[in-house]
Write a structure and sequence with these properties.
The protein is α/β, with parallel strands linked by helices and 391 residues long. Helix content is 39%, strand content 11%. The chain has helices spanning 5-9, 22-33, 76-91, 115-138, 162-166, 180-196, 212-227, 238-244, 272-282, 299-317, 363-383, and strands at residues 96-98, 154-160, 203-209, 253-258, 291-298, 336-342, 347-348, 353-354. The strands form 2 sheets. A 6-stranded parallel sheet has the order 1-2-3-4-5-6. A two-stranded antiparallel ribbon has the order 7-8. Helix 3 (76-91) crosses helix 4 (115-138) and helix 10 (299-317) runs parallel beside helix 11 (363-383). The radius of gyration is 20 Å and the shape is globular.
């Protein structure tokens, strides 16, 4: 049986390593070169920690600020640099690499791009991630991986929140003044493009979601994608219907990652408990959302958040399951916990840089805090006599 990301995420006690923040690594490489143009000839010495640690406070000029790091996809040199960063994360032990598409959406038509150009850039981003995985494994780098790291590589397409494309820090507030339908329209075409490429990717990540209304919009859109598997119209062949994207489900794993202002609430002030209740109500069997977690929040908040997520899952999903019944565990019974905070530095939206001296910028300290989260989650599982949750 071929192990998919979805099945791997559902294995009790499974731990998978994410790639952290590739845009941060691209920032660092560009800052080291003092240029917004990207090449892959240098700066490959010490960027491989896999942790989202910001070390440069100088503004970094990506080719187009409106697309942020995704604008590197516009040039051959930029694509090579992206591929190199992906390979660095794989060499550091990452099981999952995410596409450089967080700030890439069809909202960019407001900046002079066509919808077709955005479609193409989304596909190019997937290609670069796949090329990196192929190159890494073709060159037999597995001996360089840390001991015990799974050799399987999964590719996940990144979908950023609405606030990300505004490039004004709105993802830190969630104050959009938009309706659920407005947000569905924002996410829809991008999800359709990525769904058509479901045989090329292993999953989709909705990242840095700062508000309950955007959570509701994403859940509604995913449910629509699952339910409306449209048949071809008269005189329309199935291939044409498939190319239109109207009959493609999201086949891979899907996780939803929240942006939090502290250890218990979203950036818009909604309690995480309320978000989890909405998630369970809209997706009671984990059919459409297979992982739930947090990202782009301060690492100091993550221990409390991780235990909040774990306790909710254990209370609502595994209350009747014992370790002795582990072989009979229904994969739908649990959601994977997904954790990838930032270093906790404060962002200066005026000067487009991180405030020097803020946050946890020592990689070892960051890693130890993440290990503390995993140990605490597993200790909680043991205390409650439940299966160890995947992380």
């Amino acid at each position: 049986q071929i192990e998919t990301l979805r099945t791997s995420m559902k294995k009790p006690s499974k731990i998978l390593l994410l790639d952290g923040g590739i845009s941060t690594e691209l920032e660092k490489s560009l800052a080291a070169r003092g240029s917004g143009t990207s090449n892959d000839d240098d700066d490959d010495d010490d960027d491989d920690s896999g942790a989202c640690i910001h070390t440069s406070t100088a503004p970094v000029k990506f080719p187009d600020r409106n697309l942020w790091s995704s604008s590197l996809l516009l040039s051959h040199k930029g694509r090579l640099d992206i591929q190199s960063r992906h390979e660095n994360f794989l060499a550091a032990g990452s099981n999952i690499i995410t596409t450089v598409t967080y700030q890439l959406s069809h909202f960019a038509t407001r900046f002079g791009y066509t919808e077709e150009q955005i479609d193409d850039l989304l596909l190019i981003a997937i290609h670069q991630a796949k090329a990196a995985a192929a190159s890494f494994h073709d060159h037999d780098h597995d001996n360089a991986k840390p001991k015990g790291v799974d050799e399987k590589t999964f590719i996940v397409a990144s979908i950023g929140c609405y606030g990300a494309v505004l490039a004004d820090g709105s993802e830190y507030t969630g104050d959009y003044q938009l309706s659920v339908d407005d947000l569905i329209q924002f996410h829809q075409r991008r999800l359709e493009v990525l769904s058509r490429e479901s045989n090329q990717i292993d999953g989709i990540a909705f990242e840095t979601i700062p508000s309950l209304i955007e959570v509701r919009a994403i859940l509604k859109l995913l449910k629509l994608k699952t339910k409306t598997k449209t048949k071809p119209r008269p005189n329309q062949d199935e291939g044409a219907s498939s190319r239109s994207g109207c009959n493609r489900d999201v086949n891979g794993a899907v996780w939803l990652s929240l942006a939090c202002q502290n250890g218990s609430t979203l950036n818009d002030g909604t309690s995480i408990s309320e978000v989890l209740q909405v998630l369970d109500l809209e997706d009671p069997n984990s059919d459409i959302v297979h992982g739930i977690g947090v990202n782009c929040c301060k690492v100091g908040f993550v221990h409390e958040l991780s235990l909040l997520l774990a306790r909710h899952i254990l209370d609502t999903r595994t209350s009747t399951i014992r370790d002795s019944d582990i072989k009979n565990l229904n994969p739908k019974a649990i959601r994977t916990i997904v954790l990838y905070p930032n270093s906790g530095e404060d962002w200066d939206a005026v000067n487009n840089c991180w405030e020097e001296g803020s946050g946890c910028t020592i990689a070892e300290d960051f890693a130890n805090e993440m290990l503390r989260c995993i140990r605490s989650i597993h200790n909680l599982c043991r205390e409650m006599d439940r299966p160890l949750l995947p992380v």
